Amino acid sequence: xxxxxxxxxxxxxxxxxxxxxxxxxxxxxxxxxxxxxxxxxxxxxxxxxxxxxxxxxxxxxxxxxxxxxxxxxxxxxxxxxxxxxxxxxxxxxxxxxxxxxxxxxxxxxxxx
Length: 112
Ligand SMILES: Nc1ncnc2c1ncn2[C@@H]1O[C@H](COP(=O)(O)OP(=O)(O)OP(=O)(O)O)[C@@H](O)[C@H]1O
Ligand SMILES: [Mg+2]
Prior knowledge:
alpha+beta, Alpha-Beta Plaits, four-stranded antiparallel β-sheet, two-stranded antiparallel sheet, 2 helices, 22% helix, 33% strand, binds adenosine-5'-triphosphate, binds magnesium ion
């Protein structure tokens, strides 16, 4: 299994969420985050406001998928999250050791 953590522009959340649902993901976790990429110190626009500080508001989406789904999900996020401007975000992919569904105690792929 893989844990896919994508940092995206906040206004892209609805599009990405819909595309992930259409791709059949079983769940996702969304967090408000802030960060910066390689233009640190340079400006980036967020809701019409120019931020000259380092940290720009972003959304992090985490979705756990079986290995065979990972490539499709990464492609889906890349395509729907892209504006072509700086700050579109990044996708981090981790090997996921285990998942446990607390209600039933199921583990591994059965718990995705
Ligand atoms: N190396 C990194 N480590 C951790 N988080 C990162 C890293 N790079 C980017 N991020 C996170 O992703 C967000 C968006 O990064 P961003 O898209 O600006 O990356 P970039 O490498 O500067 O690409 P671009 O040139 O397209 O802007 C950052 O605000 C930060 O939250
Ligand atoms: Mg950047």
